[in-house]
Amino acid sequence: MFPDAVEVQALVRTKGLFSFYEDGHQECCRVRKVRPLRRALKGLRAWITGQRKDQSPGTRSEVPIVQVDPVFEGLDGGIGSLVKWNPVANVAGNDVWTFLRTMSVPVNSLHAQGYVSIGCEPCTRPVLPGQHEREGRWWWEDAKAKECGLHKGNIKQDSESNGSAQANGEVSDIFESESMLTLNRVGIENLLKLEDRRDPWVVVLYAPWCQFCQGMESSYLELADKLAGTGVKVGKFRADGEQKAFAKSELQLGSFPTILLFPKHSSQPIKYPSEHRDVDSLLAFVNALR
Asked: CATH 3.40.50.620 in the chain, residues?
């Protein structure tokens, strides 16, 4: 699997090769790792990881052996469509190494140089004696959130941390595409006021920190690409923070993400009723009501 060349090029041209040192690693990881994995998992019903509880006390201490993947979608699409199996979740790191040595399993030579947890070259360094293995990854960031996004469901999202992240601008935006229109408060209000629209609209109400919004990102981007040139406009409206009360009262926001269709000749938007957020289900909804 490879990242999308256009996305990588846009990121590097806009922010340079090492923007993650300044604004966090999530954006780079999402482009280079998370989205390619999402495409791969779309064709599967389950996947196996090597996560262990003792790898990262801040994020992995409660990793179960078997779970419904909280972030990615599987073959059938929608929440609950992918099983995630973590068979060594309860195995201690020392026991893993004892097994490897006993069975003479070849290992990465960097381990002998102090690289206990190995990631991308610019984001990984050796750990010192007594340091936890995860201290060698993204060492400039908070130790409680050391996940690249492949296992982002391990990070607990509470209202306080979400509000803080939003206020400080620490969360990178999602649903970014040339086929996507970004609506601000005035734009969405104008769309609501139109009683005889020239074109139908599909709009997602989202929060960039929401793992379910992130989980449907590739499907929604594909939907925008497929509807480009058809007369159906595809947009997004960030509905968290100061906009949440407005979205709840005027846009039928119940939870993130909420998807609305604004028909061509109707003043009232129609809320997408299903938990299936794969591109085929979304496209069927749009085509039935457009």
From this structure: 5-150
123 is catalytic: no
| CATH class of the domain defined by 5-150 | alpha beta
Tens digit of each residue's pLDDT (9 = 90 or more) over 43-69? 899 999 999 998 877 788 889 999 999
Contact between residue 175 and residue 236 where contact means Cβ atoms under 8 Å apart: yes
Residue written as token pair 């998992």:
41
**Strand arrangement, sheet containing 181-182:** 181-182, 233-238, 201-206, 258-262, 270-271
Burial 212-230 (b: 16+ CB within 10 A, else e): bbbbbbbbbbbbbebbeee
pTM: 0.64
CATH 3.90.1720.10 is right for the domain spanning 181-289: no
User: How would you class 231 by CB atoms within 10 Å of its CB: exposed for 0-12, middle for 13-18, buried for 19 or more?
Assistant: exposed
The answer on pLDDT for 169 being more than 60 is no
Among 28, 29, 123, 210, the active-site one is: 210
In the residue annotation, 213 being an active-site residue is answered as yes
- Max intra-chain CA distance, the chain: 73
Check 28, 29, 148, 213 and give the catalytic one. 213
> Residue 246 has which token pair?
């407005």
